[in-house]
């Protein structure tokens, strides 16, 4: 583990202003909420769809609304996890998004994490989204990567990227609501640390899906603590991680079935090249009350080099008898038969390999249900594949 | 839902587990003073008249043990064990050394007759087609070993380890602690310090052991811990099948059992190790029963070697046991077949480790857990492939069956891959007996109880098939006993 960096200071008006050009051009993300160094910057954010109310975490805490404050410190993850405890102690700010019951928006709300230039530093944020009963909303998280400008030296850029991000998102999904969450954990640089926590409680009959695309950036840990609160809810958690160099990506899940008749699906895929390490540790907990639970967890890893490593720990913890739960984990190299087949059809080795890898990752991306985002993810996968070192001598 | 409801009612009405081996035999014993210190370690070593290197080996382990902490990572919960409140050595007074059956105390023979274990060589010859050589271990000592002569003709050495220390010191010294070192873990280190007896098997190159070997462990004395040590060496191209059985009297206090089993398979050798573990599980309220903390490990040392573990776990209040294989030789193979059945308030945390080091090593793990009553049943396993383990393959399948809604089934697999040419597959499911299966059986005229037994037996069939025939019959009966009262 890398050592902790000093906490960044809250951004000044000038620093926020300096970021404005990145968000004022015509191609900038719509419906966006921007956090600069973990602090909500309304100046850089744009209009929200109808029925969505946004405030900074600081203002909600000042206001002292007991219901929101209770949600910000969820009981199911309290004290159990050192990363959450650290986040609770050091969080600077964040956003609180309230979605009115019945509100709908097909376009996603974009939650963007931006950073000011400066020395190596750490930032902590905690955000909350409350999705009212029957509402339907999408939330897309991403890291804002600034293009290098002419006036910035190379070394300045290096420092700019050496960051530690500890973000926590808490989601409360009301009865019958639909909440679709995606996060692109891309664009970091070696030496960076990102630790993202998502705590979700799902009401009766609600649907909660989350997808993560992870590429690059030194050390990443993504942890999800999810709890089915009411009966009949559904959820699908998915993720694709593409790693190379000495990158390390960890997915930690705790899916708790606390109500009957819920169905949960988790599928995570890893493509590991060079000396990268992938970690998947998932746990399904079925409480005694959660009869008729239908839970499936699967992790699949492709190792592309002799020095890559995958560590899997899919756990089941079951206290109810009338359930159907399963988990699986596979790891291995690309199927030699498939490669051979494609080569017999005239594809060069590298292209055959890329095709299979793209298909492996693509299975999850195709199911996103948001074509714009899917295209962004696909191109990121392609870009990652194109940066692969040319293959050596293959038989 | 009728069948389900009935099952639930049955579980609720469980009284005391039917444990038919729970009798206590009043046999005078020779005990070491209570407690554990260097003197006791020396006392045990002196009782066995051990050479000084072994005494030092024990003392070394004991000193290390003092610096270690009891592991707490397993999913089991038990009261603190007072290691000073135990007898570390207990031997029936009338057994100075196992010579032949005539010398054995008839009372002891009665115990084994009551347990249904054949110690009379003639009887076996007359009655059963296949013969089994038996080493009977009673508390801390081996009381008799049968068929030694006949095995000797084939060159197979099968004797208590305390005897092997004297008759084959070079083998014992070479292999003891080579798979499970004295530094391995808290319970293995404790065992290294105070181990009393157990079996020693050496099968010379190219020999197929002419009969099944087996050891029956019996804890009889009160407040006694049993710390047996088994060492099996299969030299090049040999084969041996070894069976282990264990029982203990019903007592209100918990008894400690911390064994170590080491297997070594050289080139082209195969060891098949089967266990029917039937220690006293405690009553339905969780009072009494054996704490079973066992370290079992096999070293597939040579190329093309094979080690296969088969276990049927029905007893013990606490089970902490992970029979493992180190797949060191190229093309070596490890297998683990397990049925773990828990009822009452039993807690089982069991599984395996397959450590792939050599090239083209393969392993297979089939684990079936059945939890009933208020028990907790955990599968914990590790499959790992070293960077050099090119072409390693593993298939793991662990299924759990829950009977009743106050029990728990858990699966904790660790799958670590460091080599792209490995193929690791893991799958696990948890379910209850489906109503469709039940309905079909009932509709064919079976009673609910027969139907459940049939379905459960089908569920564990993959594993039962791996057992030697004599054991398979016994295991099938055991499964019926430990589910009695829980199956609707």
TrEMBL record, chain A:
Domain SUF system FeS cluster assembly SufBD N-terminal: 33-110
Domain SUF system FeS cluster assembly SufBD core: 121-360
InterPro entries named among the record's database cross-references: Fe-S_cluster_assembly_SufBD, SUF_FeS_clus_asmbl_SufBD_core, SUF_FeS_clus_asmbl_SufBD_sf, SufBD_N
BP GO terms, sorted: iron-sulfur cluster assembly
Top-level taxonomic group: Bacteria
A matching Pfam family: SufBD_N
Family, as annotated: Belongs to the iron-sulfur cluster assembly SufBD family.
Protein name: Fe-S cluster assembly protein SufD
Automatic annotation (TrEMBL), chain B:
Pfam families: SUFBD_core, SufBD_N
Alphabetical list of PANTHER family matching this protein: FES CLUSTER ASSEMBLY PROTEIN SUF (PTHR30508), UPF0051 PROTEIN ABCI8, CHLOROPLASTIC-RELATED (PTHR30508:SF1)
Similarity annotation: Belongs to the iron-sulfur cluster assembly SufBD family.
Protein name: Fe-S cluster assembly protein SufB
GO biological process terms, semicolon-separated: iron-sulfur cluster assembly
Annotated ranges, domain SUF system FeS cluster assembly SufBD N-terminal: 153-208
SUF system FeS cluster assembly SufBD core domain location: 217-459
């Amino acid at each position: 583990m890398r050592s902790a960096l000093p906490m960044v200071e809250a951004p000044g008006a000038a620093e926020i202003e300096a970021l404005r050009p990145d968000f004022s051009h015509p191609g900038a993300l719509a419906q966006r909420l921007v956090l600069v160094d973990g602090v909500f910057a309304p100046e850089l954010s744009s209009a929200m769809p109808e029925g969505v109310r946004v405030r900074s975490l600081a203002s909600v805490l000042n206001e002292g609304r007991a219901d929101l404050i209770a949600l910000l410190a969820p009981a199911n993850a309290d004290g159990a996890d050192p990363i959450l405890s650290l986040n609770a102690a050091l969080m600077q700010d964040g956003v609180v998004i309230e979605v009115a019951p019945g509100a709908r928006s097909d376009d996603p709300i974009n939650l963007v994490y931006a950073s000011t230039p400066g020395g190596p530093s750490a930032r902590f944020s905690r955000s909350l989204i409350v999705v009212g009963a029957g509402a339907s909303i999408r939330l897309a998280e991403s890291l804002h990567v600034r293009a290098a400008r002419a006036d910035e030296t190379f070394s300045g850029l290096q420092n700019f990227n050496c960051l530690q991000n500890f973000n926590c998102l808490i989601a409360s999904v009301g009865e019958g609501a639909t909440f679709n969450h995606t996060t692109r954990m891309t664009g970091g640089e070696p030496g960076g640390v990102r630790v993202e926590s998502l705590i979700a409680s799902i009401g009766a009959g609600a649907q909660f899906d989350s997808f993560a695309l992870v590429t690059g950036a030194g050390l990443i840990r993504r942890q999800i603590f999810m709890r089915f609160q009411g009966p009949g809810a559904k959820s699908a958690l998915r993720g694709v991680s593409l790693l190379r160099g000495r990158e390390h990506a960890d997915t930690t899940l705790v899916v708790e079935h606390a109500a009957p008749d819920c169905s949960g699906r988790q599928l995570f895929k890893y493509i590991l090249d060079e000396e990268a390490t992938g970690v998947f540790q998932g746990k399904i907990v079925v409480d005694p009350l959660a009869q008729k639970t239908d839970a499936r967890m699967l992790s699949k890893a492709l190792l592309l080099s002799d020095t890559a490593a995958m560590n899997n720990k899919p756990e089941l913890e079951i206290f109810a008898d009338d359930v159907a739960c399963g988990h699986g984990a596979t790891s291995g190299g690309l199927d030699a038969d498939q490669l051979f087949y494609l080569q017999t059809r005239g594809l060069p080795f590298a292209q055959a390999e890329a095709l299979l890898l793209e298909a492996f990752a693509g299975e999850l991306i195709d199911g996103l249900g948001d074509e714009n985002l899917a295209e962004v993810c696909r191109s990121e996968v392609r870009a990652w594949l194109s940066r692969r070192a040319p293959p050596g001598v293959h038989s | 839902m009728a069948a389900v409801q009935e099952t639930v009612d049955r579980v609720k009405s469980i009284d005391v587990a039917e444990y038919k081996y729970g009798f206590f035999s009043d046999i005078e014993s020779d005990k070491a003073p209570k407690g554990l210190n260097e003197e006791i370690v020396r006392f045990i070593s002196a009782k066995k008249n051990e050479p000084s290197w072994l005494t030092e080996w024990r003392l070394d382990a004991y000193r290390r043990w003092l610096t270690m902490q009891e592991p707490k990572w397993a999913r089991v919960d038990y009261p603190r064990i007072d290691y000073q409140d135990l007898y570390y050595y207990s031997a029936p007074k009338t057994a100075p050394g196992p010579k032949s059956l005539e010398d054995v105390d008839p009372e002891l023979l009665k115990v084994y007759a009551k347990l249904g274990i054949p110690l009379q060589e003639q009887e076996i010859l007359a009655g059963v087609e296949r013969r089994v050589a038996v080493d009977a271990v009673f508390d801390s000592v081996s009381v008799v070993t049968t068929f030694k002569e006949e095995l000797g003709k084939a060159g197979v050495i099968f004797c208590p380890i305390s005897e092997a220390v004297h008759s084959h010191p070079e083998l014992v010294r070479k292999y003891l602690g080579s798979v499970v070192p004295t530094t391995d873990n808290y319970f293995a280190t404790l065992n290294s310090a105070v181990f009393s007896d157990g079996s020693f098997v050496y099968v010379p190159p190219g020999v197929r052991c002419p009969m099944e070997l087996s050891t029956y462990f019996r804890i009889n004395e009160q407040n006694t811990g049993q710390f047996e040590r088994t060492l099996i060496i299969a030299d090049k191209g040999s084969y041996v099948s070894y069976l282990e059985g264990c029982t203990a009297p019903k007592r209100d206090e918990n008894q400690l059992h911390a064994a170590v089993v080491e297997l070594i398979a050289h080139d082209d050798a195969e060891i098949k190790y089967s266990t029917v573990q039937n220690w006293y599980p405690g009553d339905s309220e969780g009072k009494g029963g054996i704490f079973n903390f066992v370290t079992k490990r096999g070293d597939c040392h040579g190329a093309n070697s094979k080690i296969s573990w088969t276990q049927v776990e029905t007893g013990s209040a606490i089970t902490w046991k992970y029979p493992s294989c180190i797949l060191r030789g190229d093309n070596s193979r490890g297998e683990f077949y397990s049925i773990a059945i828990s009822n009452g308030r039993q807690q089982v945390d069991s599984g395996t480790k397959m450590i792939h080091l050599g090239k083209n090593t393969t392993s297979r793990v089939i684990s079936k857990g059945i939890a009933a009553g208020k028990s907790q049943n955990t599968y914990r396993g590790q499959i790992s492939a070293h960077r050099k383990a090119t072409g390693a393959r593993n298939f793991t399948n662990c299924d759990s069956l829950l009977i009743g809604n106050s029990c728990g089934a858990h699966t904790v697999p660790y799958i670590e891959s460091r080599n792209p040419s490995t193929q690791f597959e893991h799958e696990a499911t948890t379910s209850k007996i489906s109503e469709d299966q039940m309905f079909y059986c009932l509709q064919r005229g079976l009673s609910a109880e027969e139907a459940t037994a049939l379905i459960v037996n089908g569920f564990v069939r993959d594993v039962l098939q791996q057992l030697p025939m004599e054991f398979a019959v016994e295991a099938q009966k055991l499964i019926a006993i430990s589910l009695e009262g829980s199956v609707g």
